[in-house]
Write a structure and sequence with these properties.
2 domains, 382 residues, Porin, globular, mainly beta, single chain, 16-stranded antiparallel beta barrel
């Protein structure tokens, strides 16, 4: 065991030395030879929020600091067509029980722009706000509509990720991604059926510049004129309910992004919108069971409008307004309005956010407390 520890320590010293050399040459990339390299980066989101009547006594406003996300990014090339990604995330990092988990672990066979295969743990093809992740959204609180199964804690994935395989590619302005994943394991899914997930999109104006099938909800005017329509479909037999009362699950989603670049990218007008329709075939008995994997059933939508104020200064301001509505098939509807401003220093790699929300919509789809919250957030990536 001691020999192993010495070898690990020695390897860490070598890696640290390599990183020091790499940083002097190419911003976190360790070049092994002409086709092999490793790149290391990271991301952090933290903030402060105050919610009316949110203090433990139920009458004063809460005052909460939180570490919302802390990620380590590792990627590399084994050859010009074989790559890998290994990313970590701090799960529940704001509490004492926080732990570092594997976020992505992907073997990437990128053969050509039209056809590529990823195997491992990755984002399931989904709507734009899921493909953004938290770091590439337009609004700070983009997750106020019901989440897909892979973004539920526990049985069906985590942080929008699942174990499986995805094929993806594009032809011109058309892009596709389709995959098979574990989805819900056990529980209602006693026959071990897989989750099917696909995303198709078409860019009517300029083609969006993103890695693989990932997305962004704003390019701060630097991406040219954009008008992209996305279609998402996910389905899993016995993907909801309980072992005794299983039910099928499917979701159909349309999302749209329009961004008009103004004055050669110095300013931009952005509109983002999404419509979701979830079908969770749940019986009243399943819903009443404590072991139910009870997904949202119904429809939801949101619309966000933003304007990037032109400025010659390093700090740019992007005010926005967002409306969310969740309308379950049974039960009460909910909505949320968000008024905010992004303070952009270096695109998605360095920005601040100040926002005010009012309403009762949240990512469960069921109404939460109808309250007002003001929050301030910091985001940094390298």
């Amino acid at each position: 065991m001691k020999d192993f520890e010495r070898k690990v320590a020695h390897s860490l010293v070598l890696l640290s030395s390599a990183l020091l050399v790499a940083n002097a040459q190419a911003a976190g990339t360790i070049k092994i030879d002409d086709t092999r390299s490793v790149t290391i980066g990271g991301g952090l989101r933290a903030g402060f929020s105050s919610t009316e009547n949110g203090a433990p006594n139920g009458t004063d406003d809460s005052k909460d600091f939180s570490l919302q996300s802390a990620r380590l990014y590792v990627s590399g090339n084994a050859s010009d067509k074989i790559k890998f990604t290994f990313n970590t995330e701090c799960d529940s990092c704001g509490g004492a029980g926080g732990q570092i988990i594997v976020l992505d672990a992907i073997a990437q066979f990128e053969l050509n722009p039209k056809f590529n295969v990823w195997v491992g743990r990755m984002l399931t093809p989904a709507d734009r706000i899921e493909m953004n992740g938290p770091y590439y959204g337009l609004s700070w609180n983009q997750y106020t509509v019901p989440l897909l199964p892979s973004d539920q804690t526990g049985q069906a994935g985590l942080f929008g990720r699942d174990d499986g395989v995805t094929v993806w590619g594009g032809v011109g302005k058309f892009q596709y991604a389709a995959g098979l994943f574990n989805g819900l394991k056990g529980g209602a899914n006693q026959k071990d059926s897989p989750l099917f997930a696909t995303r198709l999109s078409y860019s009517f104006l300029g083609k969006e510049d993103n890695p693989a099938y990932y997305t962004s909800s704003t390019y701060y005017g630097g991406g040219g004129d954009i008008a992209t329509l996305g279609f998402v479909y996910q389905k899993q037999s016995d993907g909801a309910g309980t072992a005794a009362q299983p039910g099928d699950f499917d979701a159909t989603i349309l999302d749209f992004l329009y961004e008009k670049s103004i004055d050669k990218g110095k300013s931009a007008f952005t509109v983002e919108a999404e419509y979701k329709k979830f079908n969770a075939d749940l019986t009243p008995i399943a819903k009443a069971s404590p072991g139910c994997f009870c997904l949202f059933d119904g429809k939801s939508y949101f619309v966000t409008v933003a304007y990037l104020i032109p400025s010659e200064r390093p700090l740019k301001w992007q005010p926005y307004i967002r409306h969310t509505s969740n309308e379950p098939s049974t039960g009460a509807s909910s909505d949320l309005n968000e008024l905010g401003v992004n303070m952009i220093m270096r695109g998605h790699n360095a920005r601040l956010n100040l926002n005010y929300t009012d309403g009762d919509a949240n990512l469960t789809g069921a109404p939460g407390p109808d309250v007002s919250t003001i929050s301030f957030g910091v985001q940094i990536q390298i």
